[in-house]
Design goal:
It is rod-shaped and about 135 Å long. The two termini are 20 Å apart. The chain is mainly alpha-helical. Helices cover 77% and strands 6% of the residues. It has a 5-stranded mixed sheet with strand order 3-2-1-5-4. The chain folds into 2 domains: 67 residues, no CATH class; 144 residues, Orthogonal Bundle (Helix Hairpins), CATH 1.10.287.1490. Keywords: Coiled coil. This is CT398-like coiled coil hairpin domain-containing protein. InterPro entries: CT398_CC_hairpin (IPR056003), Oxidative_Scav/Glycosyltrans (IPR052376).
Length: 244
């Protein structure tokens, strides 16, 4: 294949752009904030599980307290009813029966109020435990939000660089012969690099000094001949410092 030396030299700019684009892609996929967020994820999930458990326990305790309070109200209503009946009846037998029931209700009320106090204390303890978990979640959420903001900001900067560089690459490629670009893209797809400079006999594609036999063959090639690196497969771009 033939290509003007100036066009071949432009391939180095194209390769530099592709190399930088690959670096930007790698950097975007491997942002340090993303790694930190991944490390925090088990802690986030563990805290969420603790919060769900604590919330469930508290709801159960509050429901139990509500039931006990309802039972107390029922007993108090019966006490009021029986007390009113004692005051209204003149039957000694009825009074004795009502007073016996009132004594039983008083004991029932005492028992319920003791249970109520115990459940209230449990509710208070569970509320404190949930408040602790809430505080831990809020602190962790703050850390996560900060990391997410930093990640998004850094990703935005990288994306801005990528777009600008992609536009430059398109401009460079558009100015080069189609067959040269096709060869460049083919070699880059196969070997990871499409073009490399030859500097003092060393291929920058492989960072290996070429053999004298390879260098002799390259010396025999015309300036507009497109030659390939025998080691890296890249288009070998020759210049004044190639050492030929």
């Amino acid at each position: 294949m033939k290509a003007r030396p100036a066009d071949q030299n432009e391939l180095l700019r194209l390769q530099a752009a592709d190399t930088r684009l690959a670096q930007l892609q790698h950097a975007t996929k491997n942002l340090p904030q993303a790694a930190e967020l991944a490390k925090l994820q088990p802690e986030v999930e563990a805290l969420r599980a603790r919060w769900i458990a604590a919330t469930g326990e508290l709801e159960d305790a509050r429901a139990e307290l509500k039931r006990v309070e309802s039972d107390v109200e029922v007993v108090e209503a019966r006490v009021k009813r029986d007390t009113d009946r004692v005051q209204q009846t003149s039957s000694v037998k009825d009074v004795q029966a009502l007073e016996a029931e009132l004594a039983s209700l008083a004991k029932r009320k005492d028992d319920l109020e003791e249970i109520e106090l115990t459940v209230m204390e449990r509710v208070e303890g569970l509320e404190e435990a949930l408040a602790t978990v809430d505080a831990e979640r809020a602190e962790l959420s703050g850390r996560v939000q900060t990391l997410e903001a930093q990640r998004d900001e850094e990703a935005g900067k990288l994306e801005g660089q990528r777009k600008a560089l992609a536009a430059d690459r398109e401009t460079i490629a558009a100015a080069l012969p189609a067959d040269l670009i096709e060869l460049y893209e083919r070699q880059r797809a196969r070997y990871g690099i499409g073009a490399a400079a030859l500097v003092r006999g060393v291929s920058m594609g492989s960072n290996v000094k070429l053999t004298e036999s390879d260098l002799s063959e390259i010396r025999r090639a015309a300036a507009d001949d497109v030659v390939l690196c025998p080691d890296s497969g890249a288009i070998l771009v020759r210049g004044e410092d190639s050492g030929l």
